[in-house]
Design brief:
Helices cover about 70% and strands about 5% of the residues. The chain is built from 9 helices and 2 strands, in the order αααββαααααα. Strands 1-2 form a two-stranded antiparallel sheet. The longest helix is centred in the last third of the chain and has 31 residues.
Length: about 240
């Protein structure tokens, strides 16, 4: 993947959302897509040129993505895009499995009809996105699905905790959705699991919803770890 070059522009859409949020999303996408590559230094001056916003907005966005673990501040160098770490991925997916399982259980316990209908509709959007050619569309649809799952818990504390995990998992989710050597059938397996989880939620079966949610995260973790291992092998291959 090519990284952003000096003078290159990262487009942001001028929408109703606050400019800071738009810049934040643009930086996240730049990192996930590889346009802002692991190890790349992010200077305020270059980011201002790329995004066409003020220094204050850039600094606020950098603080947020640092908190999300997407960049790190290196002494005498400044903000640098963090590389994907297998150890970190393993740790995050373990935490995600527990929290997401709890989210599915709480959603099932609440089982508000309108919330369940929204979750079902979001899942169908994921299915459509998986059938298309755009990895970015699939990533957006999957993120929207999980946002609704978390909101259905009715727990502000859990939602906040999952938002932090979600932000850091985003990069690995992108790897699993777009990697050219992803396991054949993995996307179909994921859809089957999510359909089963949503069905359990709709039935108010918290035990089943939690079990299926945790199993799906565990399967996603296995796939991501496999892809990270492949990337490591490629990087170490002298040819």
């Amino acid at each position: 993947m090519r990284k952003a070059k000096p003078g290159q522009v990262i487009n942001i859409e001028r929408q109703a959302a606050p400019l800071r949020q738009q810049v934040l999303e643009a930086l996240r996408r730049g990192i996930v897509s590889g346009q802002l590559a692991p190890g790349q230094r992010l200077t305020e001056r270059e980011l201002i040129e790329m995004l066409g916003v003020s220094r204050t907005v850039i600094r606020e966005a950098l603080r947020q993505i640092e908190a999300e673990g997407l960049i790190e501040i290196i002494p005498n160098k400044g903000p640098v895009v963090r590389a994907l770490s297998a150890a970190e991925a393993k740790d995050l997916y373990r935490i995600r499995a527990v929290l997401e399982g709890l989210a599915a259980r709480l959603f099932a316990d609440n089982a508000a009809t309108d919330k369940v209908a929204e979750l079902q509709a979001a899942l169908e959007s994921v299915v459509l996105a998986y059938g298309g050619a755009g990895g970015e569309q699939a990533l957006d649809a999957k993120t929207r699905f999980y946002d609704l799952l978390y909101q259905g818990t009715g727990s502000e504390t859990l939602i906040a905790m999952l938002a932090q995990v979600q932000a850091r998992v985003w990069r690995w989710r992108a790897v699993g959705l777009t990697h050219p050597r992803r396991t054949a059938g993995r996307l179909d397996e994921s859809i089957r699991n999510l359909r089963a989880m949503v069905a359990a939620i709709a039935e108010g079966n918290g035990d089943a919803a939690e079990r299926i949610a945790r199993d799906e995260v565990s399967r996603a973790a296995v796939e991501v770890m496999r892809l990270i291992a492949l990337e490591s092998e490629t990087d170490s291959d002298p040819d």
